Queue: 2 jobs
Job 1
Amino acid sequence: MDIGLNALIQNIFNSLSLGGLYALIAVGYTMVYGILRLINFAHGDIFMMGTYFAFYAITAFFLPWYLGFLMAILITGLLGFSIEKIAYRPLRNAPRISSLITAIGMSFFLESFAVVVFGGIPKSFNVYPKFFSDIILIGQSRIPLLTFITIGVTFFLFLVLWWILYKTKIGLAMRAISVDIPATSLMGANVNNIISTTFVLGSAFAAVAGILWAMKYPQVQPYMGFTPGLKAFIAAVIGGIGSIQGAIVGGFLLGFLEIMIVGFFPSLAGYRDVFAYIVLVVILMFRPTGIFKIYSEQKV
Amino acid sequence: MKKVLILTGIIAMLLASFAIADDVVKIGVALPMTGNISSFGQMVWQGVELANEMFPTVLGKKVELVLGDTRSDKTEAANVISRLINLNNVVGILGEVASSNTMAGAPIAEKYHIPLLSPASTNPLVTQGKTYTSRVCFIDPFQGHVAAVFAIKNLKAKSAAVFTDVAQDYSVGLSNFFIKDFTAAGGVVYKEYYQSGDQDFSAQLTDALSHNPDVIYISGYYPEIALMAKQARQLGYKGPFLAGDGAEAPELVQIAGSAVNGLYYTSHFNAEHPVTKIGQEFVAKFEEKYHTSPSALAALGFDDYLVMLNAIERAGSTDPVKINEAIRSTKNFEGVTGYITIGSDGNAVKSAVINEVVNGQFTYVTTINP
């Protein structure tokens, strides 16, 4: 029984660290959706670019790891800004399906770009200081320090996001835009700037998630954003796409689900992705607005 | 008049292109050059390129290699093989590495009667019931047997946690063959599962380690093995790992670092112990060209090319059907990975090597004959 309890504690921490990463990525999805009603399928690839930026900032430009990470986050934010400006802004008034297809195209573009420029072979992300991998013993469970850092960073960033959204003027504008873009612009807010800010923030979150992800699973390759991106999308839908709290709760729920299914039913482990999709289907069938329903009045 | 001129021009160009096409023998190469197992593709390609440099002609004609990237993906593997046959008109194809990918492309090669010669797909199903699909490597019942015997005799293991990648036919097959021989010898097995592309194995490892296994057998490919080994060490596992030929790639050590020290794997070749004369020559030439010692997959790529070339030579023509017959009657051909005999079932019978990762180096342990 002792072993069972240890395994459970171990798995709770495993879930928290995986769920935190999903939540960080899901927040980027949900912010963009909340404002533009656009599912940014390139988000997973922005996450991938973030890890490459961190990798090259440290290996090619010899920056110390903390500066390298900071640079990567800033550059990824800039990338999000450019993507919005080049690919999505010209289509803002086009039918929604056009923006969606553009997002998928952007995703392919970023993947192919990474294959051509960075190479298709996985790179080892062993550029962070070793203390991140130190093991902390809790009872007989062995938890890497990185797990605590991931959980800590995740919650810290959510506090920052909450502060931006509810205590600053730009956050107020973001919330306003998510309700009605033309009306917000009539109130004198610069809609373009605010949408750009949203992309920068979402992409920066993706970069943080990417760096933490690469430290946990130290392998960087051009297609690495696909699965986490898809999972985070599911997490965002579970929580209620467009809702920040929803993305956070959805991310952690998905993390727990994936780990605990494997923990309790090891023989199903090979199919754990299937469970994420089953949950997605069930949510879409019975509660399409997700756990946190966004109340929106029908515009007439 | 103008039209006639243009038409004549086009016909002349077509004839010219036929004339050029006649002077070369086109061999297709379908490899995972990018994606999850890209390292395999790159290593096999090194071997094929070197072989092509050393033996650039067949039947007095120049050999032209047409490389297609399968992106480590089953669908794309089928597309590439179809493209090589229909667009590039190749007379034979070398590839793919992963069993699942070769199996995805094989029906197309069968349909068009083009020989498909895999360097490294070891799952028995790859050639089963096929006429045009063959290979230059041993198959998994043998590889699983070798690993089980090694685990019991050399590692003194009584229990094993066996990790299977359910998305790869190679892994599913290899795990089953290992489990069959390991349990037949009285060993206890704890089965765990994952899927290619997974990066988090903490839950499976937590479950496996709660049984205190003597050895962890991972039958998948290096990207997952590397991450799994790292996570297993973090969870406090100190015992040995055992894996199949899917483990050998530089990335294994680059990604997992010291975590894979004490990983044993069954393989086809070790550069420290070449078994044939051409093997020694290969190691020397390879080191000269690439400034690193050759991997098992580079050796298999080299052999793959040579067996294909030898078959074309013996067939005395570039007719794919005749080449295929010649491939399947290859007898005691001196390759880098040993003397290759391919039976009418398309499978090669060869000895296996066991290597160990010692301080990040793939070190020779022993050779086991069939």
Note: The first helix of chain B runs from residue 2 to 22.
Job 2
Amino acid sequence: MLKDISIGQFFPGKSIVHRLDPRIKILLVFGFIITLFIVRNLVSFGLIILFLTVTVFTAKIPVKTVLKSLKPILPLILFTAILNIFFIDGHVLFRWGWIRITEDGIRLAVLMIIRIVCLIIGASLLTYTTSPIALTDAIERLLSPLKKIHFPVHEMAMMMTIALRFIPTLIEETDKIMSAQKARGADLETGGLMKRAKALVPILIPLFVSAFRRAEELALAMECRCYRGGEGRTRMKQLKLTVSDWVIAVFVTAFYIVGILMNLWIPALF
Amino acid sequence: MAIIRVEHLTHHYSPGTPFEKTAIDDVSLEIEEGELVGVIGHTGSGKSTLIQHLNGLLKPDSGKVYINNTDIFESKETLQKIRFQVGLVFQYPEYQLFEETVYKDIAFGPTNMGLNPLQIREAVERAVSAVEIPSSMLEKSPFELSGGQKRRVAIAGVIAMNPRVLILDEPTAGLDPKGRDTILALIQKYHQQEHNTVLLVSHSMEDVAKYATKVLVMNRSQLYAYEDVDSIFTRAAEIEKIGLSVPQITKVFHQLAELGYPVNSNTYRIQEASEQLLRLLKKKGEQEC
């Protein structure tokens, strides 16, 4: 049911990937995405796929879970692939009526599929191996230069933390309310669009009411503990870069650069 | 004839994942019509999972559920009908209120049943009188009411469907002692008037001893016992062993009996307890005279 939805699901663990400083991890994922879109030769893609595989295995994330994260974007992958295969000009391989398939089209389609799949796996590795708290903490630290222009960095991070924290709670709540209304004979599964939209009212209203109630309670609880925003706030767990963080950062960045430079010597896929 | 019959019911949560958990394991049981059953067990013992099978909200991995000799998972239509025959009041039911007025909210169930307006009015009025809500409250918004009143309105919303089996999952959770007694007394009165079957999930052995006719004990996903209230507390030692408490009175009387006083060690209601104590004290008084 609803419980099985995984949004940025965190897999606790103690691997090197888990222990890497979240700030470095975020920056490396950004670097990864940039590399992915500059690189256009097969050898580099091979290296990238190897890199992802090694990371998945060191992080001990089940392969099944990684593949599951691809499921929601399957339509997108198919859509781009079809678009590329049929609508790119070039050397024609096959023609039937107005449909034609070009060599370049196939190449570009393969390239885009590899890119999207690697992008999703790389990004979900970040959320699989970093707890939401660590993630928002890192974002707050990375964005802290923006404080100079009076951007409310701390408040943003706090809002993100709270939002992430309440996703499972609200899902559970929705499940419960749905069961309760079904027990009173609410029919959520049959009928036309209008009828179904109407059937959502008995679920959405209690859900909103409870979300507001929770927000109020949380605000009160935070104030009771003297929360006054980010100013002068210290942390129990300070993010500190260790030697191994630096080593990994340098090593992986070098790897990206090598991958990009290969564009110069190896003929492009497209 | 048994109104509820459960055969070899098994249910797992999140099957096929590392988080798989057996919630109920091979539970078989028959509940006769007209009983008030106290369902007791630890958090996570499977009682909530069990009761959600009885009106088909959860589907068993294996096993069958019969209500009034009909397999409830026979077809979609049967399932929808069963939902009206087996009324289920969830924990904190006041969080499911959504309508503009108390009347409309209580009428939600009967409306879904497809009753005509006249029957709906009748059903709402019967439910309202069962939970003793003043009719002046009917046109108010349910969000204006106090916590205890909301809870009663929510219970009325299920009673209004006139179910043959009423299941309540901890109807007194989060209420003050007076609110608890009121709700439980209302449920008992409703049970006596309607002669239907009521299942009452509770954490408190005291409440179960006071109101129920039968006790169903769940322990570690399995049915531990289903017996009369009278016989269950003779097994007090066993029950305490699985980590459930017996009523305080029973504890006291067990110890009195052990000390050699002529009392019935299997006492669990205040009324009987005070009678026995008075008799005992009187006898002692006579001896001393």
Note: The interface with chain A takes residues 14, 18, 52, 55, 57, 80, 83-84, 87-90, 93, 95-98, 108-109, 112-113, 143, 157-158, 161 of chain B (CB under 8 Å).
